[in-house]
């Protein structure tokens, strides 16, 4: 059995200070245009291109293969910083980093250098899993078939977050002949593929989470879904935790700046300067503490997924199973707490300003809208139930789940 101390270099940590110094100038550039993109609903093609050119998509790839060699906690620490700059950009990259993580896990059993080279070259991957309409749970309309030696795919996906910016789809489908669930790695830029920016959410509006249609599109690689990395649900959830934390930090920073600049005071306030009003300072102080707690919880939960990644290379299936359970539980616990913290602070921060805080030009509501949208992706009530069922009954959490039509008949 391989010791956890003998894990190959893909599990090693980089120097976070050096990583941050490499990418912070780009994060600053992204932050500078975030408000305009929000107000005018401009998709962040240019910011994502900056990140691609800088090699951000390869931050988890081993140094010896051209990447930065970051650990999972370091990745999500960087993503918190990116989310503070623009939370939409982080969410647009969610599918990419999940696919990268899957290929890092697959490296244990088969060479994945062809994918690593693509990531290092700046190629990124978008998400294409969800189907809407008359699709029951368990059904997958998107089908992969063989035409001679070439796999092709036909189907329609919604919530294809990040795909409009991406070079590849991480595409969930079924092999038509066998019904086997697979990931079809498919190039986005080819005949037969259209991607529309028709996402109509009130928050996270520039994530490129629209509709993709594939008609006889060629598939580069078919990957059995059963081989997907085991802590994927926890990993996907960590993206939301990082995004929420970045939103919280950005909200605290923006409202703090608004307080510093504010000259108008209320006659029944606590002084002739807003920045000296003890109740205003109390609101900012609590929000700052809530944002701090969100970051601490996110990094702690990311440590659990790092242990799951390392356990994958230990060849101890039982140990890996138990560590994956904890990774899933910790990410769920983080979601339950962080969502409430961030939704609370992004609402109550409005107490430090007057009616001018409702100005469309300032768009201060974007923090709550974005946090509310991110918090709605995986219903909190089901996460709370899953945690409770594990605590009371020792029930193993569900790692991969679907959404679709139920069995209830009309009439």
Plain-language structure description:
With 411 residues, this protein is α+β, with helices and mostly antiparallel strands. The chain has 3 domains: 121 residues, Butyryl-Coa Dehydrogenase, subunit A, domain 1, CATH 1.10.540.10; 85 residues, Butyryl-CoA Dehydrogenase, subunit A, domain 2 (Beta Barrel), CATH 2.40.110; 162 residues, Butyryl-CoA Dehydrogenase, subunit A, domain 3, CATH 1.20.140.10. 48% of the residues lie in helices and 12% in strands. It is built from 12 helices and 7 strands. A 5-stranded mixed beta barrel has the order 2-3-7-5-4. Helix 4 runs parallel beside helix 8, helix 6 runs antiparallel to helix 8 and helix 9 runs antiparallel to helix 10. The longest helix is centred in the last third of the chain and has 35 residues. It is globular. The N terminus is likely disordered.
